[in-house]
UniProtKB/TrEMBL annotation:
Organism whose genome encodes this protein: Mycolicibacter sinensis (strain JDM601)
Pfam families: UbiA
Protein name in UniProt: 1,4-dihydroxy-2-naphthoate octaprenyltransferase
Reaction it catalyzes: an all-trans-polyprenyl diphosphate + 1,4-dihydroxy-2-naphthoate + H(+) = a 2-demethylmenaquinol + CO2 + diphosphate
Major localization listed first in the record, in broad terms: membrane
Superkingdom of the organism of origin: Bacteria
Subcellular location as annotated: Cell membrane; Membrane
PANTHER family recorded: 1,4-DIHYDROXY-2-NAPHTHOATE OCTAPRENYLTRANSFERASE, UBIA PRENYLTRANSFERASE DOMAIN-CONTAINING PROTEIN 1
Length: 293
């Protein structure tokens, strides 16, 4: 097969359906900064550039690392460029490096105008992006992927966004960070639930492989429900945060295939719906927290 992916296939390889995992934490963190009366739009845009570049970089890095290991040779999920032989490993690795470099440059600018010590946090994020499936002992192959997503796309992304704008964090930011982190982790749980059958023979021992099908489905539902519970906590800040329940229909739609025991390609929409739940919840809560009290 010719190793020349089309532009559309490169876009699909970047996995645009994962973009809510990058956008939602920045929106939530900016909402938390607005709650403190300190939102700064251009810093929010820099943070968004960092988050989007990093998630595209990690997607291409995963495509490269899983592809050269043969993990994607038998796959039911979205297109993988290396595994499908549509692009050479070198080309996909180059795309990953370019995206991660863009994120690093935007992060450097954001740290220099906010707090230089954040450079260490940025370096840890880039290392985490690469070592998820890269290196000799990738932590994504040992069942720690969900924890990393919770930390980097939840706690670090939300609280980092709030801190760069307000130069402090508060309990509202922490609640939002936990909620976004739980939903972001749920996306990966759904992804790994779908891939249990192919990951285990390939030696990719994800958390889903360790827990098994039934317990992974329970974990997914608990993570999605977390945002609903945290909405009640945010209502202590302002009753307007009750609007976060607008995301409930999307959450229920995401849960339905998992709860009913569906697998394979039937779980692909779950990733989309969970990401949309996270994005809608983050946007609505950010707007609610921005309303003058």
């Amino acid at each position: 097969m010719s190793q020349k992916a089309s532009f559309a296939q490169w876009i699909e390889g970047a996995r645009p359906r994962t973009l809510p995992n990058a956008i939602a934490p920045v929106v939530a963190g900016t909402g938390a900064a607005a709650w403190l009366g300190a939102a700064v739009w251009w810093k929010a845009l820099l943070a968004l550039t960092v988050a989007v570049a990093l998630i595209i970089g990690v997607n291409f890095a995963n495509d490269y690392s899983d592809g050269v290991r043969g993990t994607d040779d038998d796959r039911t999920g979205p297109l993988r460029l290396v595994g499908s032989r549509l692009a050479t490993p070198r080309a996909v690795l180059t795309a990953a490096i370019v995206a991660l470099s863009v994120g690093a440059l935007a992060g450097l600018a954001l740290a220099l105008v906010s707090a230089p010590w954040l450079l260490a946090v940025g370096a840890a994020c880039i290392a985490g992006a690469w070592l998820y499936t890269g290196g000799s002992r990738p932590y994504g192959y040992a069942g720690f992927g969900e924890i990393a997503v919770f930390v980097f796309f939840g706690l670090v992304a939300v609280l980092g966004t709030q801190y760069t704008q307000a130069l402090r964090v508060d309990w509202v930011g922490v609640v939002l960070a936990v909620g976004v982190g739980a939903l972001s982790s749920a996306v990966l749980v759904a992804n790994n639930l779908r891939d249990i059958a192919s990951d285990e023979p390939a030696g990719k021992i994800t958390l889903a492989v360790r827990l098994g099908d039934a317990r992974t489905r329970v974990l997914f539902q608990l993570l999605v429900a977390m945002a609903g519970l945290l909405t009640f906590a945010l209502m202590r800040a302002t009753p307007w945060c009750a609007a976060g329940f607008i995301a409930a229909p999307l959450a229920l739609r995401a849960i339905a295939p998992v709860r009913s025991g569906q697998g394979g390609v039937a779980l692909i929409p779950v990733l989309r719906d969970t990401g949309l739940t996270m994005l809608v919840w983050a946007v609505v809560e950010a707007v609610a927290l921005s309303v003058p009290q």
